[in-house]
Specification:
Helix content: over 70%
Shape: rod-shaped
Number of helices: 3
Largest sheet: none
Oligomer: single chain
Strand content: under 5%
Number of strands: 0
Order of helices and strands: HHH
Number of domains: 1
Amino acid sequence: MNITSLNNLWSYLQGLSLSASNQRWLGQRLIEASESHEKQTEEEIKLKKLNELFGVWDDDEGERIESVVREARRLAFRF
């Protein structure tokens, strides 16, 4: 939202006859939504960085890598 839209929303909210408890309830919901959005954004940023460092593997690739490692370990113990 741009600043004009936010100002219009604020004006609209001020025009409502909200009790103190209604205002507190609305404020708490806005804060919860904001915190949830920030947490989600932080997790997305972390995931993006991890994917950049290690790449993105689908489940099949992970299982294939695991089987190769197990086979290499099995063969290494024969020597």
